[in-house]
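Anyone else keep sequences and structure tokens together like this?

Example one:
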Amino acid sequence: MEGTDPARPGRARRWLAWTLTFALAIGTTTGLAFFDAGLGIVAGVLALVLAYWLLLRRMALGGRAVARTTRRLFAGGWALLVVGALGAAYAGMLVLGRQGTGRVDYQDEQTGTHGTRYLQCYVIKPDGTDGELRTTGACPASGGTRIAMVYLPHDSGDVARPLLGTKRRLLPRAAVWAVADLLGLAALAAAARTSGTPEAAAP
């Protein structure tokens, strides 16, 4: 019956919706995950729901049903980006960080949000600033021991916490980020293409 199918949004509106979708996906699963993988993963999952209902279904499709192919590509691509968040910090430090030799400072027992107690290791970075390691757990050696690490120089606020080891050791996890993001973004691009076809109106 005439008027039952929502009007198809214009090209500019669809382009804007998909631009925001890509920005939201990269910003959470790579941007936030560079500083905190857990935060990036949680934000990425929440952003998936937001992007699907508001950006894809409402803004890009004007309330029309999302085709099965588009839906699968969208969800699959975003899932890959969430997996890639696990390696975002390693990729970022591989590019932005500097390799050097610092010292183990001390370890401290802390309490997590759910009452779980864990050990956190603190180090003196090669530039003389101090901070906690990105990973939790006991220090790998006693206080004062010299140890290789990758760090951001002059990061006195400890915004990007250092990683132990050399840049070579970061490569495997950085590769996880690269492959997952490449495939994830390709899937989202395919979802964008399929959403713009007439067939996409079918549920």
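And example two:
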Amino acid sequence: MRSFKYLLPVLLLVFTTVNLSAQSNLLKWVAKCESLKDVETTVINRNNPDTRQLERTTTKIVFSDNESLLNELFTAFDNDKSSTTKYAEKKENEKILPSNCRFFDKIQKTDTRFVFHFDVGGRNFVLVTVRYNYEE
């Protein structure tokens, strides 16, 4: 019984760490994009009209002609897709590209969605929507 007292906090820490890092690679990519000058980033916050609490955040990332940033996105998606609630890929020009993915965090009650659009002309955009206090 005594060892169980010490094991429980460790298990909770491991569970929380695994759960929080579900989309960590994609979130690192988003943070990198927000710091780059040649990447257009727009953030839209939506508050609940009754409580005035933050209900949803949408981040739109637009970039062009940046092959390394695009490859980093593909790698981040591949690393995180096994942790998703759902994900979709599409085949375009003989290449498998991410289409969208969703992560649900029961502990923090957040629903995070990524939607990807890749343009043949080189203009790409990613929408990241986080809904707070969300329950399935």
